[in-house]
Amino acid sequence: MHHDALLIGDPSSCDCRNASQRGLGFSETIVVMFVASLILLVTLPGMSRIYERQQAISSAMRIQSLVQSTRMAALKEKQAYRIVFNDENATYANTIEIQRNSGGSYTTLTDGVYDVESGIAIADDNAALASLDVGTRGACDSGKVLLRDGNGHVDVVSIQPTCRTSLN
Fold it and tell me: pLDDT tens digits for 51-100?
């Protein structure tokens, strides 16, 4: 027996006349591509909803983080701060501004403007906070910030007087 004929990829070891050993034909390839396209078509809407939910959760976590870091800065510097939530109808729509009280008026910090995630809006709602004051002792206004995704789903970031936040 000749061992060279047993090597993988050796064309002399393949009897290509046998139908079970040949590759897919054109019609089989088309059928496989059609089935794969159907599967992709069915799963894409669900995947985009998952992506939007992740964007909303990411924006909510950003708000929670900004509230906590602003509280820490107020305690450390013994200065009052304000967090302004610019809703979807504001001049700088869907942004969050961090402002420091200096001399009785609030000014936006140089690096204190943050965007919410793409596709997410800070909802314009009378029941929601337009701004959040953080005192020199770390106390906050209480209220909520509403985030709406492209499908109309609303997430609520609740803020307690202790600056504790939760996502509902």
Answer: 888 888 899 999 999 999 999 999 999 999 999 999 888 888 899 999 99
Alpha carbons 22 and 150: distance in angstroms, whole number = 49
Give the tokens for residue 94. 């869907």
**Residues 141 and 161 sit within 8 Å (Cβ to Cβ):** yes
DSSP at 140: B
Closest CA to 92 of 71, 108, 74, 69: 108
Instruction: Name 96's Cβ contacts closer than 8 Å, sequence gap at least 6.
Output: 62, 63, 66, 83, 84, 85, 86, 113, 114, 115, 116, 122
pTM: 0.72
Full set of structural domains in the chain with CATH:
36-167 (3.55.40.10)
